Amino acid sequence: MHLKVQEKILLHLYDYRKYDGRYEYPVEMTQQGIAKSVGISVTHVPRNIKKLIEEELIYSKKGHVSGKKKRVTVYLLTSQGISVAKEIIESIESQNIEINGVKINLGELKKRLNMHYLELLNKIDRGELDEKYLSMKERIIFKEVNMRSEFFIDRAGELEVMKKWYAEGKFLSIVGGQGSGKTSLVNKFLEEQVPTENIIWFNLYPGRKWANIKEVFHTLFGGIDVLTILKKYPTLLIFDSYFDVDDEFVSALQSLVHEELNASKIIVIMRNDTPYYNRFYTLADIAEQRVVEIRLEGLPYEHAREILKDVKESAFKRIYQLSKGNPRILVALKNGTIDTMSIPLPPDQIHLLKYLASQKI
Question: May I ask the CATH architecture of the domain 5-90?
Answer without folding.
Answer: Orthogonal Bundle (1.10)
